[in-house]
Amino acid sequence: MLTMWEAVQTRISCRSYEDRLIEPEILAKLTACIDALNAESGLRFQLFTAGEKGQSIIKMSPAMFSGPVYTFAALAGGEDPLSSEKVGYYGEKLVLYATQLGLGTCWVAGTYDRNSIKVDVPDGWKVWDVIPLGYATDRIPMKQKMIRATIRRSDRKPEQFLESDTAYADVPEWIRKGIEAVLKGPSAVNQQPVNIVYKDGKVCARIWKDGRGLQYNDLGIAKKQFEVGAAEAGVEGHFLPGDGAEFIIE
Questions:
Q1: How many secondary structure helices (H) and strands (E) does the chain include?
Q2: pLDDT < 70 positions in the chain
Q3: Of 152, 176, 187, 205, which residue has the fewest beta carbons closer than 10 angstroms?
Q4: For position 212, what pLDDT does the model report?
Q5: Separation of alpha carbons 18 and 46, rounded Å
Q6: pLDDT for the residue 63
Q7: What is the structure's pLDDT at 138?
Q8: Distance CA 56, CA 125 (A)
Q9: What is the rounded (10 degree) CA torsion for 112, 116, 120, 125?
Q10: Share above pLDDT 70 across residues of the chain, in percent, rounded to a whole number
Q11: Are the CB atoms for 204 and 246 separated by under 8 Å?
C-alpha cells in the first residue's frame, strides 16, 4: 500500500475510467473510511455504487470525462466557509486514501448532471463536490491529455506559494516539503488560491484570491496536503480552522 506521501505524488485528476466495478472488499474499506471521516468532522459524506456494469451511476460531462463511473462519493456540508473548508480537508483525506487503494479520483464541483443523482442532504446544507472513484485507464484519451495540458500551463511555481521575508531556499525544509505537496494537490478549476505564510517563526495558510466560490474547499485541501508534506520531512502537525489559521506542531 502506498504511503501518504506516495499518494500525494501519485494522485492525478482522473477523467478516464475503465469499464470495471470496484471490488466489494475495496468498497468496504471506502465505506469504513467515510464513516470515520463523518464521525470526526460532523459532515455527511455518502458513497454510491452501481450493483452491476452497464450504466454510469452519475452523469459526468462527456467533454471532460470518458468511461463509466460506477462509484462516487458525494461531499455534503453546511454552506458556511468553515463547512466548505472542512469538506475540502476531509474530502482530500478520502481522495488520498482512495489513491492508496489504487483507485483513480477527481474533485468535481460542476461538470456533472446534478439531476442524475439523489443525495440525502439536511436543510441548509449542500453537496459541495462529488468524487468519482474507479480504475484509471492505462491509456489517457487525447481529449483528456489536452485538458490536462491546458490546466498544467497555469501551474504556479513553488516559491509563488510562499509569503515570507525569508527567501524560499532558506525556509525550513519541512515548509518547502509542505508547499511541494500543496502544489501537487487538486484545486477547483486549478485556481490554486491558497498561499503559505511564514513570518515570525509561524506558518499560516491564507486565501489570496477568489476561487469561484470554492476557495474554502481549496483551503481545506491545501491544509491537508501541507500536513502530509511536513510529516514526510519529519514535522507532524495540523492547521487550526479558518483563513489565515496557524500550523501547530505536535
A1: 6, 9
A2: 140-154, 189
A3: 152
A4: 81
A5: 22
A6: 87
A7: 85
A8: 26
A9: 40
A10: 94
A11: yes
> Model confidence over 70-86: pLDDT tens digits?
999 999 999 999 999 99
Q: What is the CATH number of domain 4-143?
A: 3.40.109.10
d(CA 134, CA 53): 12
- Compute φ and ψ for 184, nearest 5 degrees: -85, -5
106 phi, psi to nearest 5 deg: -160, 130
In this structure, how many other beta carbons lie within 10 angstroms of the beta carbon of residue 97? 22
> Residue 169 and residue 158: Cα distance in Å, rounded?
10
**Burial class of 189 by CB neighbour count within 10 A (0 to 12, 13 to 18, 19+):** middle
Residue pair 20/104 in contact (Cβ under 8 Å)? The answer is: no
pLDDT in tens, 116-156: 999 999 999 999 999 999 999 987 666 565 655 555 555 78
- Which alpha helices (H) appear in the chain, and where do they start and end? 4-10, 24-41, 81-100, 142-152, 173-184, 215-232
Instruction: Give pLDDT, residue 185.
Output: 94
Matching CATH number, 154-249, of 3.40.50.2000, 3.30.420.10, 3.40.109.30, 3.40.50.2300: 3.40.109.30
Q: How far apart are CA 242 and CA 221, in angstroms?
A: 13
The reported pLDDT for the residue numbered 166 is: 96
